[in-house]
Design goal:
globular; 25 helices; 7-stranded parallel sheet; ATP-binding; alpha/beta; disordered N terminus; 18 strands; 685 residues; binds adenosine-5'-triphosphate
């Protein structure tokens, strides 16, 4: 059990109080302060910035985006004249000063109203940059960082085109009409989310949409399709099934959209996608749009197969070094597998600002296991029944619980309000996964925090750093005392809210305690608060593996240490075998002159005293974790006596301490699926 219990089943009014309290704590506890206070202040600034952001056109972006526009003649897109604006009144005029104001685009009144209801009065850059091209009939590849509004970048111009624009004339209406728009997405959750945008904004324009995905029953989907819809949103497998059953007729299709295209293709949907796109007889009459935050080069090659040669590319990331969200604090924290369940509640306490947290694991079993260990958390992965997945996601969205433990099934596209913190239990296999996972926070101009846990001996964070352009902040696990302080202030606040009416009932017990305990009233109250927070024992954490009641030591032998086995041999010369055996996490320092490792707190004195047994050997307690060599640098050096396996302290469950076994699942990346193959439940999420 974690030593700190989390009250993460609060409702939204509680969460407001929580946030207030956290700010107070932040001002009182120095280690945590800068993060929280900065977060809050940043948020305020972010809000103001967000307004400005929508208005910004980056000249560099202009240069970065390639365009080829021969076939794309502008239609009906003149900006409003001064006279028009005068007629619409002063308020409209002020908004129109914003170059990305909705009023400056060919967006009709009902759509404008629907946007306004959702608080959108200006387009984000990717939307502003692609709007005219899509409305003009261009095929388009669109790329912008996570959370920058790529969905509306295709939804808005498509709707305008269908209702008032170039595709209006040839669009069929009435009962049994075939769809005009087909949107393909990799996951059901994402399909539902994008469908919701089409439902709301399309509904405002008098257009009908339906959503089709595997795991749900066919009948309602068939019924909707037969009745006739304008927009079909769904996952490739189920859409293919409907096409083959004759439920979807693509003969009058005007738009096809591949959202999160790289993921769809990576998941093994290539054949389904090709088959679906191949069903369109006359491709010259169909516009194809492809959007993602990540477009690996192999996707660009594939896109040239599906999109016209005259396609436009609007790439707001381009060759910029930073590919991940710039609104997110990207943090790494060393942590052994067995310490993960204990460390996560502390990270949430310090970095979630009372908001939602998504924790990513590599495997489904790990998501199940971890969600069982974290109070109030729920799991989401591909093996969970669709109906339950929907319940879980909607519970998370509505704030019924604040911690979601998910596999990559939640990495892409999910847009959930107030996700403040992302925790990745280990570095993902590819940089795209890092970019999308961390992008579940810091959306639409808000700020967020992404913490990635790693084992220095096994993980390679510099590859992700290099490829994503992220400059990671290195921290160690929040200190127990700070967490206790934070939790204590929260509990104290809760106690003051307890009704005075309970006092008479508990007064005599309190008096007895005061008279017999030998403690002062303040000391007793401190214990009561500790009990209330579930934090009855202060445990120290090691800097290297974040394990409770362990201490990180540095070994130097007066000459370079080339391998962990050499470090072990030095220890063996000066310490009994059982003490050497108890060492965990042996890692080499980047300068090659030392090795750091964890020992049990009660063994620290033995290790420090042992240095007297050999000249030139120095052992000391580490105050600040030095820079460590990564897996690549240490590869092949862990041979010595089979030591150094990641799971060497994993026992019964994959998170708890104890010896024996690699632990599998959570800890062993070599057991992981190594790819997302197959459709629907065929993938390993
Ligand atoms: N013009 C706008 N003004 C304010 N908010 C907006 C605007 N456009 C989109 N949003 C909001 O921004 C959030 C992120 O949008 P969206 O999910 O489309 O991002 P995305 O770029 O597709 O992200 P990802 O790459 O993670 O899928 C949504 O909550 C959306 O409602």
């Amino acid at each position: 059990m974690p030593s700190i219990s989390l009250a993460n089943t609060t409702n939204s009014s509680d969460s407001k109080k929580e946030k207030k309290m956290k700010k107070k704590v932040a001002l009182e506890t120095q280690e945590i302060d800068p993060l929280m206070v900065a977060n809050k202040n940043e948020k305020k600034k972010e809000k103001e910035k967000r307004k400005r952001k929508a208005a910004e056109f980056d000249d560099d972006d202009e240069e970065r985006s390639e365009t080829s526009s021969e076939l794309c003649e502008p239609v009906n897109l003149k900006k409003k004249s001064k006279k028009d604006k005068e007629e619409e009144g002063e308020e409209e005029e002020v908004k129109a000063e914003d170059p990305n104001a909705v009023t400056r685009f060919t967006i009709s009144e009902p759509l404008r109203e629907a946007l306004k209801k959702r608080g959108i009065e200006a387009l984000f850059p990717i939307q502003a940059r692609t709007f005219e091209d899509v409305l003009n009939g261009c095929d388009l590849v669109g790329r912008a960082r996570t959370g920058q509004g790529k969905t509306l970048a295709f939804v808005l111009p498509i709707l305008e085109s269908l209702v008032n624009g170039p595709t209006k004339a040839s669009r069929k209406t009435g009962y049994g009409r075939p769809p005009s728009v087909l949107v393909l997405l990799p996951t059901r959750e994402l399909a539902t989310q994008v469908f919701d945008d089409f439902r709301v904004y399309g509904g405002a324009m008098g257009l009908n949409s339906c959503c089709v995905y595997g795991g749900a029953s066919y009948q309602p989907q068939e019924f909707a399709l037969k009745r006739g819809v304008d927009v079909v949103v769904g996952t490739p497998g189920r859409i293919k099934d409907h096409i083959e059953k004759g439920n979807i007729d693509l003969s009058l299709l005007k738009f096809r959209v591949l959202d999160e295209a790289d993921e769809m293709l990576r998941m093994g949907f290539v054949e389904d996608v090709e088959l679906i796109l191949g069903k369109v007889k006359d491709v010259s009459k169909v516009q194809t749009l492809l959007f993602s935050a990540t477009l690996p080069s192999w996707v660009k090659q594939i896109s040239s197969k599906f999109l016209k040669p005259t396609k436009k590319t609007i790439d707001l990331v381009g060759n910029e070094k930073m590919k991940a969200s710039t609104n997110v604090r990207h943090i790494v924290l060393p942590c052994s597998t067995s310490a993960i369940p204990q460390v996560i509640p502390d990270i949430i306490q310090c970095y979630a600002s009372g908001g939602r947290t998504i924790i990513f694991t590599e495997k489904r079993e790990s998501a199940n296991e971890l969600s069982g260990l974290l109070p109030g958390a729920r799991a989401l992965h591909g093996e969970i029944q669709q109906s339950q997945r929907e319940v879980t996601l909607s519970g998370f969205r509505s704030g019924k619980f604040l911690t979601l433990v998910a596999t990559n099934v939640a990495a892409r596209g999910l847009d959930i309000n107030d996700v403040q913190l992302i925790i990745q239990c280990e570095p993902p296999n590819d940089v795209e996964a890092y970019i999308h996972r961390s992008g579940r926070t810091g959306r639409a101009g808000n700020s967020g925090v992404a913490v990635m846990l790693y084992d220095p001996r096994r993980s390679n964070i510099s590859k992700i750093q290099r490829e994503s352009g992220v400059k990671f902040e290195h921290i160690t696990a929040p200190k127990a005392e700070d967490i206790a302080k934070a939790a204590g202030v929260e509990a104290a606040q809760t106690i003051t809210q307890v009704s005075d009416s309970v006092i008479p009932a508990f007064k005599s017990a309190a008096e007895d305690l005061l008279n017999t305990s030998g403690l002062s009233a303040v000391e007793l109250l401190a214990k009561a608060i500790a009990k209330a927070t579930g934090y009855t024992e202060i445990k120290s954490r090691s800097l290297l593996t974040s394990m409770e009641n362990h201490v990180t030591l540095l070994l130097e032998s007066g000459k370079p240490i080339f391998s962990p086995s050499f470090a072990f041999s030095v220890l063996r010369r000066i310490l009994p075998e059982d003490k050497v055996e108890s060492v965990t996490g042996m890692s080499l320092t980047t300068d090659g002159n030392g090795a750091v490792f964890d020992v049990k707190k009660e063994d620290v004195d033995t290790f420090l005293a042992a240095q007297e047994n050999a000249a030139g050997v120095n052992i000391e307690v580490v105050k600040i974790l030095p820079s460590l060599q990564e897996r690549e640098q240490q590869r092949g050096r862990f041979g010595g006596r089979g030591r150094g396996g990641f799971g060497d302290r994993s026992g019964g469950n994959r998170f708890s301490g104890g010896r024996g076994g690699r632990g599998g699942g959570f800890s062993d990346r070599r057991n992981s699926s190594g790819g997302f193959k197959g459709r629907n439940n065929g993938n390993k999420w």
